[in-house]
Specification:
The complex is a heterodimer of chains A (353) and B (265). With 353 residues, chain A is mostly helical. Chain A is built from 15 helices and no strands. Chain A has a single domain, classed as ABC transporter involved in vitamin B12 uptake, BtuC. In chain A, helix 4 runs parallel beside helix 9 and helix 13 crosses helix 14. Classes of the chains: A mainly alpha (353), B alpha/beta (265).
Chain lengths: 353, 265
């Protein structure tokens, strides 16, 4: 994927974009820059490492076990898991703004089912996860079948979910159902060995969806749909199936994060999740190299992007610096990443003869 | 009605494709009138005509995109009704459109196998696809840097070649090339024509090239049909005609139309 520049330079015959002449210093610079742009995961990995080193020199508490587990399980894991869903959607040319409100509603649904309707814990958890799939299906139906732009679809469904949550809960936080506690720690917990549950889930999901995206027909078709909708259709790819599927995966990720956050914080809070959860997911995806132009993106990149975001957030907190300028850095990171994305897309376009 | 009596006699049982008395109207507009066309196995037929002559209507009928109003399509001696593009593809008729339906972000070999991927469930058999794509492109004489390259990095001619190779590889027996030389440089066009020539030599694939650049197409095709105002007005072996003759025919049509307009005005 990334060594194509060199191969292109070796083409005999019609030169496609006019490969750089050797010895031209500007061209060399451009080539180096191009390599850097293409190695998105490596770049973001270096940034993550630099940040980790920086904060550990600033505070000895940074590498304490409780802080590391909090950084990974408490902060990074939700970003990572939501980013997985958003990466898949962004690749096929859509976005889900509602996922943060699935995060809010899913644990409430579990609470209602267990505490009000006497549903056993495991079915209650499964139904709450199913909620994510259902919301994803509705988003797919509105976007694909009825032809609404996904930005508007999910804006609407997001508000509806928030409204449902606030109405049914009276906007009050509640305790996690006692019966669910013993299973809940496998989702997330701040205590003992279970403090790693959330990040382990996140890593497992990253591994699964990285493989799905890069090694299966589904992943290939997702890229095809986002890269050339008409072409994908002409090739007989079921565009609707890919998009419905991606919305449903994203919804499911939201439900997982919702339950995880509830168990981790040991409370079900109507002010959890919401737009911040969704935007951090999208930010992680963008920083990790997913262009919002469709057709490209990586799960590993989003994972690293989430680690960078979480490190920034946690680092500011633990070093005792005011957290106020934090958003300036995040905003800057988004813009730099996006500039790189757009430049890459331009290069690709220019590479065509 | 074919102008040349020899052409009608040229239709034989060995033809892979015959179009018989096909007409198509769109409201008040007559797009095709009693079109007859035949294609032998391994033959390369150039379907020439100016803009609006009905070339793309005929193409769309042949690739199953739209049905004719009247007339028959005979495939290997059997009459067929092409229900859809997919159906036509199943029967071995595949069109390579100008937009090519390539995915820029994917590698050459993934494009070659798009939606027909080799899979060892649940995983893509990338190694197999890469190797076979390379072998196939080499056999077809398509010159690209590597099958791992993203299609976005290829030139127009290379992209066209990949699209053609993909159709041929997906067992297309009749290939419809829609303006394959449009917007193509000299070298690029030569590459595509070489590709068509190779197909002809192998003799497994029959090709209809739709074009309005007579000169280049005459180099590779066996026979030329000229479509004028929805009718095939000319059917000759390419060795028996010339660019001058074809150009004169089209210009004569234009002059006649112009005079008719003057007279009515």
């Amino acid at each position: 994927m990334s060594e194509t520049a060199e191969q292109r330079a070796n083409v005999v015959g019609p030169p496609p974009g006019g490969p750089a002449k050797r010895g031209d210093p500007l061209a060399v610079l451009r080539k180096t820059g191009g390599l850097f742009i293409r190695q998105r995961e490596a770049t973001i990995f270096v940034v993550a490492v630099l940040l980790l080193v920086y904060f550990s020199t600033k505070s000895s508490a940074f590498y304490g076990q409780s802080n590391v587990s909090n950084l990974l399980s408490g902060i990074a894991a939700p970003f990572i898991i939501i980013a997985i869903g958003e990466v898949l959607l962004l690749i096929c040319g859509e976005i889900d703004l509602s996922v943060g409100f699935v995060v809010v509603f899913a644990p409430f649904l579990m609470h209602y089912l267990i505490d009000f309707y006497g549903v056993p814990v495991i079915p209650a958890i499964l139904i709450s996860l199913l909620l994510g799939l259902v919301v994803g299906w509705v988003n797919g139906f509105l976007t694909v079948t009825l032809g609404l732009p996904s930005f508007i679809t999910t804006l609407g469904t997001g508000f509806i979910l928030l409204g449902l949550t606030l109405t049914t809960s009276n906007a009050e936080p509640v305790n996690v159902p006692a019966a669910a506690q013993s299973i809940g720690k496998f989702f997330g917990s701040q205590n003992g060995g279970y403090a790693w549950s959330a990040i382990i889930w996140a890593v497992i999901l990253v591994a699964i969806f990285h493989v799905v995206l890069t090694r299966t027909r589904w992943g290939l078709h997702t890229v095809a749909v986002g890269g050339n909708l008409l072409g994908a259709r002409e090739s007989g790819i079921s565009v609707a199936r890919i998009k419905y599927g991606s919305f449903m995966i994203c919804g499911l990720m939201g439900a997982i994060v919702g339950l995880q956050t509830a168990f981790y914080d040991n409370t079900i809070d109507p002010s959890a999740g919401g737009y911040p959860a969704m935007f951090y997911g999208v930010t992680a995806a963008v920083i990790g190299g997913t262009a919002m132009l469709g057709g490209s993106g990586t799960i590993i990149g989003a994972f690293l992007g989430a680690i960078v975001l979480a490190t920034l957030q946690d680092g500011f907190l633990i070093t005792g610096v005011s957290a106020n300028p934090l958003d300036i850095y995040i905003g800057g990171a988004i813009l730099i990443a996006m500039i790189a994305n757009v430049q890459l897309a331009r290069r690709q376009a220019a590479g065509r003869g | 009605m074919t102008a040349e009596p020899a052409a009608a006699a040229g239709a034989q049982d060995g033809d892979v494709l015959r179009v018989e008395h096909v007409s198509k109207r769109f409201g008040a507009v007559t797009a095709l009138t009693d079109v007859n066309l035949h294609l032998a196995k391994g033959e390369v037929l150039a379907l020439l005509g100016d803009n609006g002559a009905g070339k793309s209507t005929l193409l769309k009928i042949l690739c199953g995109f739209q049905p004719p109003d009247t007339g028959r399509i005979v495939l290997n001696g059997e009459e067929v009704t092409l229900k859809s593009v997919d159906h036509a593809r199943e029967l071995g008729i595949d069109a390579v459109y100008q937009d090519l339906a390539l995915i820029n972000q994917l590698s050459v070999y993934h494009n070659m196998y798009l939606n027909r991927e080799k899979v060892r469930w649940p995983f893509l058999s990338n190694r197999v696809m890469r190797r076979e794509a390379r072998e196939h492109l080499e056999a077809m004489g398509v010159n690209i840097p590597s099958v791992d390259v993203q299609v976005a990095r290829l030139s127009g001619g290379q992209r066209q070649a990949i699209a053609v190779a993909r159709s041929v590889y997906s067992d297309a027996k009749i290939l419809l090339l829609d303006e394959p030389l449009a917007a193509m440089g000299v070298k690029e066009a030569a590459m595509i024509l070489d590709l068509v020539r190779d197909l002809k030599e192998h003799g497994q694939v029959s090709v209809i090239i739709i074009a309005h650049n007579y000169g280049q197409v005459l180099e590779v095709c066996d026979r030329v049909n000229l479509l004028q105002q929805g009718q095939i007005t000319f059917d000759k072996k390419s060795s028996e005609t010339s660019v001058v003759e074809l150009t004169n025919l089209v210009v004569a049509e234009y002059r006649a139309a112009l005079e008719a307009r003057h007279r009515s005005a």
